[in-house]
Amino acid sequence: LEQSISTYLGASHVLAASNGTATLHLALVALGIGSGDEVIVPALSYIATANVVELVGATPIFVDVDPRTFNIDVSLIQAAVTPRTKAIIPVHEFGLPCDIAKICELAASLGLSIIEDAACALGGKDGEKYAGTFGHFGSFSLHPRKAITSGEGGLLVCADSALAGKISILRNHGVKMENGKITFQEAGFNYRLTEMQAALVHSQFQRMEYILTKKQELADIYHEEIKSPALLLPIVPEGKTHTWQTFHVLVDPSIDRDSLILKLRENGIGTNYGAQCMPDQAFYKRKYDLDSASLFPHAIVAYHHGLALPLYEKLSAAQVRHIATTINNLTSRP
Ligand SMILES: *Cc1c(COP(=O)(O)O)cnc(C)c1O
């Protein structure tokens, strides 16, 4: 599995682990990031992106996202950097690669490490290069919600051989084989992926290009068929390849998004909000008490008005047209 993925991505080291949160955690531990350090994260993501920073005892510094791509707003990063900043975790939100080349350039000039949270972006590209292969680390999730899955699982791309060696020890109780003898070199974790999970996801990997192509076709149908002026459809900036992990639309504030979710459910269509404004979640609210509405306005808009539409390769074109028509009808004004 590790070899297949590293060949596919053109990455030097790929390490499998038990999930896509473990991979982010391993990267932070391997970099020695901990108490007193700060790590820059987008305000909008799945909560794991911020939780791993807390897990190592460091402080997540939230930065607002771009209102159209929902990815971290690169122009706001510099102002969030302090002498304590050690790393940036840019997220390829919903499977759309962020401006990762620019972020890497900025990080290099500031001496910061980059851990790409590419949980949703296996197969996504910025230019000719795969998401997850730009930074010092790139983390993928194999959770059932993602395009290919091992039940639970994760993959970590690592550019540096010494760090890759450290990760392989850390994920297995700190065990190192030396002269045929087991030694314990680190206070490591049990973050192993099992052989059975690896076999399962490896067979799905053989169909991944088919899955991504099918999802692109269905996303195109949504773009053609959703005509309601109350919905703002996702964009794909020039040069980026979206994986369509999530087809994320913004619902006009004149329509209550949560009631729309309920009405769609009554019509047999399952939808949900797309991603959390992380500083607004209970733990972060208690600990940092940040005023998200004024500090992260675009993340708050996406959290309150974003909607993830059904998109998986087994949906038919007719079903996607039916969903689009139902949404058009439910959101058009009388
Ligand atoms: C799914 C996801 C994760 C967590 O992955 P798990 O495998 O569930 O631990 C982390 N970050 C983002 C952006 C995700 O979408």
Feature tags:
single chain, 334 residues, alpha/beta, seven-stranded mixed sheet, three-stranded antiparallel sheet, 38% helix, 19% strand, globular, binds pyridoxal-5'-phosphate
Radius of gyration, in Å, reads 20 Å
Give the count of helical stretches.
Answer: 13
Ligand identities? pyridoxal-5'-phosphate
**Distance N to C terminus:** 54 Å
Number of strands: 17
Structural class: alpha/beta
SSE string: HEHEEHEHEHEEEEEHEEHHEEEHEHHHEH
User: Strand share of the residues?
Assistant: 15-25%
Which percent bin holds the helix content? Answer: 25-40%
Shape: globular
Strand order of the largest sheet: 1-10-9-6-5-2-4
Overall pLDDT confidence: 97
What is the makeup of the main sheet?
7 strands, mixed
Contiguous low-pLDDT stretches (5 residues minimum) are none
